[in-house]
Amino acid sequence: MTRFSRIGFILAAAGSAVGLGNIWKFPYVTGEYGGGAFVIVYLLAILFIGLTIFIAEAVIGQNGQSDVSTSFVNLSKSKNKNWKFAGFMVFTGLIILSFYSVVLGWILNYVFTSFSALPTEAKVAGAAFEKLISNDIGSLLVYHTLIAGSVVYIVLKGIKEGIEKINLILMPLLGLILFGLLIYSLTLDSFSQAVSFMFSADWSKINGDALLAALGQAFFTLSLGVGTILTYSASLSENTNFIKTSISVALVDTSIAIIAGLIIFSFLFEAGAPSAAGPGLVFISLPVIFSGWGVLGQVIAFSFFIALIFAGITSAVSMIEPSLRFFIERFNITRAKATLISGTTFYILGIVALLSMSKSFSTELTFFGKNAFDLMDFMTSSVLMPIAAILTSVFLGYFVDKQTIQDKFTQHVPLAVFNIWYFLIRYIVPLAIVVLLLNKVGIIK
Ligand code: PHE
């Protein structure tokens, strides 16, 4: 197995973390829950729960040096074989990748149209988006195939030549584009309005749903609960300071979410558009605003959507990698074969997700009142990822020899840091997730 360099790992883990979750989802969820108060809850969720699990996955990976299921077994007290079932989380990543690739396909469409047909009115923009996702099956299939093909092409080349290299190129470019957009939004009068929207707290919209959304967003944005951080950490040399790298990645990820929020809200407020526009926010509201800015607007539109593609591709490759390592180590097959299996699986599931949004197939592809796309989204972020997070924390808190983990920590940080983390992982993390999940299904209010 080839390995990441330290900087390669930080870039790849940050590349995984920074994705559509930061630039597409974070702003619209923040908008829906009223701004500042949600941002505070989100930051707390990142600090106390997200970062704790991030470090947990890093410890398991560093110690196990293998795929998710083998790493769990290796680290458990008396090497209990049942822990191999924790490997289920690699399939969560594949399911997410299925619909993530479809969304990246929509974005590709906006990259292509940013120089030609930006809509000038919200109604027209809404209709264009609606037509794309519900009628244009042919184009969507082409886009999904292009994205899936790129993901497969990159991961086939392996950790060093594929994943590390693409992050080395795309992450700095992404940083540059976002920096440019931030500078531009600083010149707008509405920038200060965006700042006050994001940082002054109105607690009236914070309820159980908002808390769960903040927690779900913290998991999703840090790529937790699908074995990504664990698998990447298994390809990082054993004596790296994983605490420091984890904190760096969480910092980069959080900063980029905040910056994306500031950029997008400045744009929205500049045009007097509403902040609570839901998932269509970047696809409907933004293009209309860009179209009002003439040629400059087209350049900004193109840069913005390309940034989303870059951010998304580096995340997409990290969703398939855990399953590749799992197949390679468990079934002793080549990387090419593993890629074929995982690639075909997510490609086909992606087509199902894509068709389920279309007019022609939505009835056939609706299950339990949700179309396949929404069902995959719901199952992964509201069920499978939280379950994996509970499992990971209970595992480290109760089924692993305490001294072993403590030694790993104290190689790099003072004992007090370990004690705080251990308290969080044993009590706070599992409790917080269970309470929020029960609240979600309505058992506690
Ligand atoms: N963190 C990515 C984002 O914010 C999504 C992701 C989830 C990536 C799970 C890998 C694993 O878009």
Could you explain the architecture of this structure?
The chain has 445 residues and is mainly α. The chain has one domain: Amino acid/polyamine transporter I. It is 77% helix and 1% strand. Strand 1 and strand 2 form a beta hairpin. Helix 12 crosses helix 13. The longest helix is centred in the last third of the chain and has 38 residues. It is globular. The protein starts with 5 loop residues before the first helix and ends in a 5-residue tail after the last helix. The relative contact order is 0.19. The chain binds phenylalanine (PHE).
- Average of per-residue pLDDT values: 93
Strand order of the largest sheet: 1-2
What's the number of extended β-strand segments?
A: 2
Quaternary structure state of the chains depicted: single chain
Which blocks of ≥5 consecutive residues have pLDDT under 50?
Answer: none
Q: In CATH terms, what is the fold-level topology?
A: Amino acid/polyamine transporter I
Largest sheet: 2 strands, antiparallel
Q: CATH superfamily membership, which one? A: Amino acid/polyamine transporter I
Tell me the β content.
under 5%
CATH class: Mainly Alpha
Class derived from helix and strand content: mainly alpha
